[in-house]
Amino acid sequence: MPDVEFTNLFAVVLIALLAPLLLGLAPRLRVPAVVLEIVAGIVVGPHGLGWVEVDLPVQIVAVLGLAFLLFLAGLEIDVHQLRGQVLRLAVLGYLVTLVLGGITSAVFSAVGWVNSALLLAVALSATSLGLVVPVLKDARKADTAVGQFTIAAASVADFAAVLVLSLVFSTEGGSAGERLVMVGLFALLVVVTGLAVATAGRSRRLGSVLVRLQDTTAEIRVRAAVVLLVAFVALAERFGLETILGAFLAGAVVGLVDRDASSHPRFRIKLEALGYGFLIPVFFVTSGLRLDLRGLLEDPAALARVPLFLIALLVVRGVPAYLAVRTLGGRATAATALLQATSLPFIVTATQIGVVTGLMGPVTAAALVCAGLLSVLVFPAIALALLRDSRGRSVKPAPAAERGADRPA
Fold first, then answer.
1. Distances (CA, A) of 84 to 48, 323, 399
2. Which among 6, 36, 103, 5 is positioned nearest to 281, based on CA atoms?
3. CB–CB of 386/333 below 8 Å?
4. Where are the alpha helices (DSSP H) in 304-361?
5. What percent of the chain has pLDDT over 90?
6. Domains along the chain?
7. Residue pLDDT, tens place only, 129-160
């Protein structure tokens, strides 16, 4: 057996267990588990108490965790809901986000905080679909007009941000033109694969075999999804693109093919159990282990970047939500703006790429991640409060929003 130490991985998975357990024992402590996982990683990591290090086993599981996080984010995208007024406002909102992000990032670049204003603009442009959707579902708002607008905007922002990051800032090398060609070829391959999978799924013989094996120890649907995930990640790497693009598109393909889940209702639950039960928490704890807060804590001027980045995140992603104010109403639009400005996983990914490529310093990366942590901690709670009136009833969106959400393209 190879001489590999699993002590650090044990510490990481122990933190992943204790974080939600602590929150479960203290229900009044309304903190998302992901925040506690990253903070715990900071405390016990090399830049904190120095108890845990990022060795090879931790790195491997963390990479798989990032891939699965993007996979589940892609899985949340419902292509059939992206149509009509909802899609138009989501796309227009993201264009506004890019403009605001470019202006904001140019200011931060002018004062020397980042070496690439475009990278910062992209980092600020995403919404954490995987974090926002559970919040809306838990509050029973996912099927309302507010929920549909928010999910559509988050879907467009997540996909566009992952695509731009992979296209422009890939660590695999090559010119932007070469990567653009590679993205086109990769997209074509994704479409062909999706059509092949969908066609195979219509086979009665294969379908009966899948139904027979899906809830046995074979877990055939889960295995097939993992194969598709790893295949897309490997292909993205071969094409010189960021692996996160492959993981995200793999989830989108599975979500598109798995539109009718009547014959396999536990499929997505099993995927979430694998991701959120093991792989994804390791990624977040490891992100905390790698985060160096000393530069922020030792320099008050550097620490001031955190609230400024938080405000920038709210402006860049929140302001575009007001394109829908006439259909949603002021109070619901404010809630949508806060939910759209909730972002963390993509910020963590973008800052890691920025540090590796030298386009972002460790201090700025730490400040951005801290701003993301605060957005996850504060924005959803305020948004849910805004979605209720003084008597605790849900705010009803204007009828036009309902008509717009159902209007065909």
1. 50, 15, 15
2. 36
3. no
4. 305-313, 325-328, 330-340, 345-357
5. 19
6. 7-406 (1.20.1530.20)
7. 777 876 777 667 777 778 888 888 888 888 88
Which H helix or E strand runs over 86?
A: helix 84-110
Measured CA to CA in angstroms, residue 51 lies from 8, 16, 56, 226 at distances of 9, 16, 16, 33
Specify the DSSP class assigned to residue 316: I
pLDDT in tens, 265-278: 788 889 989 998 99
Report the chain's mean pLDDT, rounded to a whole number.
Answer: 81
Spatial neighbors of 368 by CB under 8 A, at least 6 apart, are: 120, 123, 309, 347, 350, 351, 360
Q: Helical H runs in 174-317? A: 176-201, 204-213, 220-238, 243-257, 267-274, 280-290, 294-298, 300-303, 305-313
Higher pLDDT, 268 or 11: 11
Which DSSP string do the residues of 97-146 spell out, in sequence order?
HHHHHHHHHHHHHHTTSBS-HHHHHHHTS---HHHHHHHHHHTT-TTSHH
What is the distance of C-alpha 396 from the center of its chain?
Answer: 28
pLDDT band at 17 (very low <50, low <70, confident <90, very high): very high
